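Late entry, written up from scratch paper. The run itself happened at the end of the previous shift, but nothing got recorded in the book at the time, so transcribing now.
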Amino acid sequence: MFSWLGKESGSGRSPQDVLQTVTGGLQSLYTGKLLPLEEHYRFHEFHSPALEEADFKNLPMVLLVGQYSTGKTTFIRFMCSQLPNQVLKSISIIDSPGILSGEKQRISRGYDFCQVLQWFAERVDRIILLFDAHKLDISDEFSEAIKAFRGQDDKIRVVLNKADQVDTQQLMRVYGALMWSLGKVINTPEVVRVYIGSFWAKPLQNTENRKLFEMEAQDLFRDIQSLPKNAALRKLNDLIKRARLAKVHAYIISHLKKEMPAMFGKEAKKKELIGKLPEIFLQIQREHQISPGDFPEVKKMQQQLEMYDFSKFHALKPKLIDSVDNMLANKIAPLMSMIREEENSMPTQMVHGGAFEGTMEGPFGQGYGEGAGEGAGEEEWVVAKDKPLYDELFYTMSPVNGKISGVNAKKEMVNSKLPNSVLGKIWKLADYDMDGMLDEEEFALAKHLIKIKLEGFELPNELPPHLVPPSQRKPVQNSE
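Output as recorded:
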């Protein structure tokens, strides 16, 4: 089932609190103006369930979708079901079940997977589609899942993951094949944004495109990091989109009601109207001057209408339509102005914590890690056993006043093939005096931490006392 990593408990003011007035106004407009129209014409049975309070007041949400083994859960770096995490104070992350491919597609899930995806798509702020560069494939179920995002195309971002498992020439071919495949299922005039990289904390298997991966990861972080800033505006735009669809739906339902005979031939007329639905759409479009983009998908609507008795639909009620028109024409603009005022009066809201914290610190970006205890409780500094080897390397890098710069340190550290997210964590831990340079002890510590990571262990969040360079330890005062 879907995994929802929601807002953790804790104190502090969130972006949601800052924009409470705006979201409250949106909720009031929905319940007072739009909801009556939806209920009268059975909108919720055809398109989307009624919105609830949580839909207006929730944190920005990111939905991850992809086939099995494309790295969705690793991308999130999901470690356990409950843990303190600063990131979750700003956004919620939703991990979806892996998309099926091959023979597995014929196995029933027991629920309408695409309908569930559509429900989430209408409520989230960002949809991330993950693909595996090593085994690129868009299965039939994945294609249908992407089509379920129709109308939410501005929220979609694509990640071509595990790109370090192919060389540059293969990567170009994979990227071209992906763009061609996406063009067949994502029907938009604009090219969808694709981020290329390797989103895990292990060494890169192929370092040819390391710089590209670094830039792409930073771009993706910035895109997600800005979601809280645009959360209220997204909710407003989604409400406008929903209102337009609800109006079109009301015109369609009332038209079908009007065309039904009073007594005999109802079933035959129903079949005729369903068959002529594309023409009815065009007629309504011309009569009420409605954009074609506001209409639902014809084939899906035809399938849904098969289950209904048109004679039980409601006739057009202009008062309900006028109420929604008034909302769109006169009530949305003040809320838009309120959002702009909030943005100008409050500090810019960004995602913080985890991979989003200090991404430009030192010569690397910061990553995620925990746990390293070798040498704890011992008198000798655990790094000292390999320090002679590290010292030889240190003095080949032309230290000035006993220290090497971040630039020189980076040249050596990237040889480990660890991604920048990990090396950034190592830099932050090793540069204990935070002067932007490394002395011989700090450099040895950096090499020791690299060794720990390459051996499969995680890095500590903070440098434990037993790893602090001896020259920088505070002297222990004896009490008498």
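Residues 17 and 57 are 9 Å apart (CA to CA).
(Scratch paper discarded after transcription.)
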